[in-house]
Amino acid sequence: MLSEITKLVRGTDALKRVELLCEPGRALVHDSISLFCRVILRKGEALYCGAGIYSGLSPARQCFLLPARAWRGGQPIQTEEWQDFIIFGPTCDSMDRLGFSYSLPRDLSEGDWIEFQNVGAYTDMARFNGFSVDKIVAVGQDELTMLPAAIQ
Questions:
Q1: Could you tell me the pTM of the whole model?
Q2: Which of 7, 45, 70, 150 is geometrically suited to a Cys-Cys bond with 77, CB 3.0 to 4.6 A?
C-alpha cells in the first residue's frame, strides 16, 4: 500500500510540494471492520440511519467515501436500479452527515441495513449522547462469536 501511495505522490506535481503524513494504523487495519446500521427513516434522497459521524463513521465525514452495500432479510440487495443518497446519523446534530453521497438500491427503505466496509480502527472510538456501537461480532474462519461492546 505504501509503495502505491509513494508512486502517486512522486508522480503528482502538486503533491510533491506538500508534507505527507501517514498514520500506519489506518493503513494496516482499514479493511478489518464493517459497520452495519439500520435505515431508520427515508425522506426522498435522504437516509437517516442508526449510525453516523458520532457512532462509528467519523472517517466518512470528510476523508473517505467508504465502500457500502445494502442488505434486506439477511442478504445483500441485488438490483440494477441505483440512487444517490445523502446519509445522516441519528443524533439530530447538523454535523452528523456523511461527507459524500452513496449510491444504493433505489428501493431502499426503513428497516433495511447498510454495511459500511473498511471502517477500520475508528469504528468504536466515539460516543456521543449515548450513541455508540451496539455489538461487536468477531468472525473467524470457522466461527461467529458475539462479544459485548465493551470488549475490544
A1: 0.71
A2: 70
